[in-house]
Batch of 2 targets.
Target 1
Amino acid sequence: MNLGRKNHVHISKFISLTVLIIIGLLGLFAPLIMPHDPLAVDISKRFLAPSWDYPLGTDHLGRCVFSRLLLGIRYSLGSVLIIQIVATLLAILVGAFVSLKRGIIDFLFIRICDILLAFPTLILAFGLLGLLGPSLKNVILALILTQLIYYSRLIRSLFIGINEKDFIQAARISGTSGVKLIIRHYLPNVWTPIVTIVALDVGKVILEIAGFSFIGLGVQAPLPEWGMMVNEGKQYIRQHPELMLYPGLAIVLVVLIFNHLASSLKRLDQ
Amino acid sequence: MYESTWIFCLKRIFTLPFVLLGVSILTFVFIRFVPVEPAEVILRLARVAPTTEAIEALREELGTDKPFILQYLLWVKGVVKLDFGTSFVSKLPVAQELLAKLPATIELAITAFVLILALSIPLGIISALYKHSIIDKIIRFFTVMSVSLPTFWLGFILLYLFSLKFGIFPTNGKGTLAHLVLPAFTLALPTIGLFVQFIRSAIIEELQQPYVKYAQLRGLKNSDILIRHVWRNAAIPLTTLLGMTLGNLLGGAVIVEQVFSWPGLGRYLIESIINRDYPVVQCYVLMIACIYVLANLGTDVLHRLLDPHLMMKDRRD
């Protein structure tokens, strides 16, 4: 019984991971697989039904929906990868710096975090975007900043949590310092909670990127981002609801997979 | 006992001006980073050719030609007199415009909040009582789905099904209760998922406590034990989620209002962002920070009142 359940969890993880890798590869090789140019407008081919030539039909400008979905993988997965990786690396730098220095720098850091955490993340990102102006680059920038605040505070407290441990003290006494101390001694011991939390946020960040594009603050037309595609599809909701359905399902699929994998990671961590 | 709670409140309220000061300085600094000149934007909006002289004249009028520090001090001076500047677009006082749009958003958020409590408490309890059963599995599947759905997309799916297909609810606008159902549900759903998960694990943990066994041995009815003891204890940590919930509702409202053409703060914010109406964005950010800090203070106080352990811990300190 127990064994069976364990196997079941492994199988669902295996499937999720496989699907994710396939989606990633599809995104990576999108230009080679796409049956049509996702930006090519052809009004004479508006709203075509699915066929061998156009697997998911065409949109209001006669563009191939399937090709647009494929290229859209790059925007959703690509941006989330950039955001989470850059935010984590910066957060490790900031968190390590303030936790090793302490004193006035640490004090100021905590105050600034308190001020910024006085916002719901989404509102903070909206505020930043409002000031920076709408574009994909700025969405990525705004989300890196909001994630950075949370992660650097988290990493700071993780580092401070093991500051007094014997192995850190031993390493310090034997003259290890700076970068080596962080990479060799601190990071290996706090790696799991960091990875888990960063992974748990991936789904949320994908939803946020899509939401920003949907509102018109992120990826701009004619580029095929999924949130943007939902936005374009909404005008034809009465006659052609499928134009809105496909990109939405794509988002749900990717977010579900990430949430599932991240929650397995969390269970491992516990 | 009351004293310590009062002092706690006062201390927290005392930090509010500092938070607001910090927020306003940061937004001001950010505006400086923006490569766009507000004067040019205003001229474009007014369909006036943005010549160098026209921009210079308008900059003088707006005060954006002055040094940064001076601009900030002038702004603070206005804020102290409750003057938050005027919108570039409508030329009306920003605070007045935002306050006019606040009630619609509050209406939406409160309805969503009621929905969250009304749905997640029974679902969470059922899921915990019948854990690992088929009902539990179904509920858990829906909670996982609810946090993985893009709200804007869900909004349109609901709109398509209930307004266009079955014609039960109106598609957009505001006024009657029927107008409120779809937007409020869309706004509530992701948070319902979080609440159900939280309540489920809190109740499961609480059911394992020895006092539950003792109460059962004393012959108390299971429903009594659940309502009088288990739920009460499990509900206390739920208060810690309230601050986050407010954040979810305010942030989510921006998107939901856009989907259902709900005339609230969120839609106004997006409009202002696209028009580069900085005074509006700045005032909005300040207002939300204010609401959020006060709401967090409120939940902390509530948490302390409900959980005597916390108060005792503070006394010992």
Target 2
Amino acid sequence: MFDIPLNLILGQMVLGVVNGVFYAILSLGLAIIFGLLGVINFAHGVFFMLGAYCAYMLLNLLGLGYWEALILSPLIVGALGIFVEIFLIRFLYKLDHLYGLLLTMGLALLAEGLVRILFGPQGIPYSIPESLRGAYNLGFMFLPVYRAWVVVAGVILCLATWLIIERTPLGAKLRAATDNPQLVQAFGINVPIMLTLTYAAGVALAAFGGVMAAPIISVDPSMGTTIVIVVFAVVVIGGMGSILGSIVTGLGLGVLEGFTKAVFPEAASTVIFVAMAIVLVARPRGLFGKMA
Amino acid sequence: MLEIRDLNAWYGESHVLHGVEMDVPEGKVVSLLGRNGAGKTTTMRTIMGLMAKTSGNLRYNGEELLKLRPDQVARRGIAICPEDRGIFPSLSVIENLMLPPIIAPGGMSLEHIYELFPNLKERRSSRGTQLSGGEQQMLAIARILRTGAKFLLLDEPTEGLAPVIVQQIARTIREIKELGYTVLLVEQNSHFVEGIADTHYLIENGTIVDKIDGADFAKEIARVDKILGL
């Protein structure tokens, strides 16, 4: 390990932050949805994938570029989320968590299969917008401008979500409904609509991540499933119930993965799961999880 | 005016309210007394729309409430202060206080609430669950005074509290009444409701077994206590 150039380690860790941003955005949405709806949304990765495909279609059917897609794609996918919550997810609230996992997993397989039929199994191209091409020289590496943008925009998005939940009246309603939905409804708040919109917001976040990822990872039908497996490990490590926890854990594990890529590349794809196993043994409720 | 007629409610298969009949006139304080498990809290929950299986009539100012969702009942001006106080642990005191939406004009201002409950002002940025039992009870009452709801359901507000705090809550209920609120007060403590309520109902096994006028309550209190098992 000591003969590996420091530059390589630092470089991989910086790139790890980029992956970490996607982990954070996705685990944030998962945590919010699980907190309020009690549904383990296995379809979360599919909404991430649909966000990317939506950007692709906006470009090829309507000629709308990256910036338009960054706004429209989450809105379109969020609308789809509203539809899914009203017609499927809401029937799960009174059932065991396992049913939610099964339904959303089935939904994920179905959506992935449909995309495969419509667009083919191979990856589709989506290019980096003109204004974000080029690279910064950080001394130890060249950091592509686009990846820097992903980190900045992603971190801002995560912090903004955290602020909305922790510091605004809307967020207080959300937290209260997570504590005691019946009482919140008895105060005159329409909780069913709140649940629908929360699901939509959670999947819209995933779609936003999907658009940001489109220019730098392979856009293919299985991109969501690939990432969501890792994101579930992130959620387990971070622990359910803490918004800030899922952001910090997402970023931290991205860096850990990058570091491993440099020092012991063979373990890079498993290091997160090793971390998950260790955390589960040492601290079963996760690093930031609340007491049950 | 709330008119309750032949009200039945079930928890799953178990039939817990058997034809409850009560009137809660506008601007009055009405107490509902009974032992644990007599159906007091279930009556509150049924009024609020929180019970899944119900039958009968629940007319509020002429409108049938029985099949409405809890948020729709709340929007008509009925607010609940639940038995467990229902303080949200993830929210600060001020967030708990501001959570119920304003449903009608004429609610109490924050200044007035702080005047009634000075402790809440001091502790407004603490977590709700860091308050003492008495402060939590005050928060739970204060929270529904802000919203403009004029019909308050108070579920055992004195349970487990020190005498000095019980007196403060009694003063508060009298003040609320002066301001024209209607209160349905669920209690096990007959001495607390004596002198506060205009009418008293006794409930046993999900049925109203007696109705006593406030003026006659003093001479009936021994009999009431026997029913309450005190």
